Amino acid sequence: MPPATALVVGGGSIGQRHLKNLASLGAGRLIAVDPDATRRDAVERLGAKAYADLDDGLAEKPEIAVIATPPARHADALIAAVEAGAHVLVEKPLEATREAAERARDAARRHDRVVWVGYQFRFHPAVRRLRELVASGAIGTPLLLRAEVGQYLPDWRPQQDYRASYNASRELGGGIILDASHEIDYARLLVGEITGVSAMAGKLSALDIEVEDAAVITVRFASGALGEWHFDTIQRAYTRGAKLVGEEGTLVWDWPSTVRVFRAATGQWEAETLPFEMNDLYRDEMAGFLRATRGVAGAGAGIEDGFRVLEIALAVKRAAAERREVAC
Questions:
Q1: What pLDDT is attached to residue 1?
Q2: What is the reported pLDDT for 159?
Q3: How many Å apart are CA 85 and CA 81, to the nearest integer?
Q4: Do 142 and 255 belong together in one domain?
Q5: Are 114 and 139 part of one and the same domain?
Q6: Residue 116 CB partners (closer than 8 Å, separation 6+)
Q7: pTM of full prediction above 0.85
Q8: What is the domain extent for residue 47?
Q9: Fewer CB in 10 Å around end: N or C, the chain?
């Protein structure tokens, strides 16, 4: 059953995407909150009733709330929503600081609300296939993981000056380490818990931003496996993918949705390209979240997973600043 009333907090591009998906999934009344009049006009054109103030939106008594504000503003909106009785889908990362994330987690626990954090790459067909192959023993015990994501920051939202986006601001929770935490989330799904990180990070380009635009990270897993992550907002061509080496073979994810597996037993590569549309990730996540609010377990990242991913991302930032391995 779709919600009778759904609230989206934040009327930017991702908030508008969520409104469209909620409408397509049959949500009843759509409410949106944004202090910017231009964005309020945009969400009203999508059929949502728009308010400038969160209290006014919550007065509509939404069953669910979607938080699509800058990361450093997630906690306050999430807490207000769960106190008003709503279940919450909050965009990643959970917050920009551990202290704020703890306040959000405590409120979700206290009010017994379903809270998911928006790690929609869990719903990517290639990531799902990688998980299936690992679970089936296709490559034996995973030993090494290499993951990469890169895209030129001004190309992320071409309709907006990148310098005005949260991604460019330290205060709002920007920087590639927090923004690329999808890779942290799916690494835990594929290989297991992460126990230590080391990193080099900084602003390497001429981009007019306050935060790091590149990070090179090494990862230690509880199993003994090792990992490498490359995150950047510099590359002019979108790049994303992963390689997972096991004792009995290798898995490769090539963007957007090709999965290759090398099996030592046959000495051969196998490849499959899976059907993929970017919005399907968001729509499938939203559908799973709505089912979860009705008590049906789903594949999304709950607030405990979201909190753990933030802990690891903050450990990466500390490791880069202190030039040492940091336990996490």
A1: 79
A2: 87
A3: 7
A4: yes
A5: no
A6: 88, 89, 90, 285, 289, 292, 300, 301, 302, 303, 306
A7: yes
A8: 5-120+284-301
A9: N
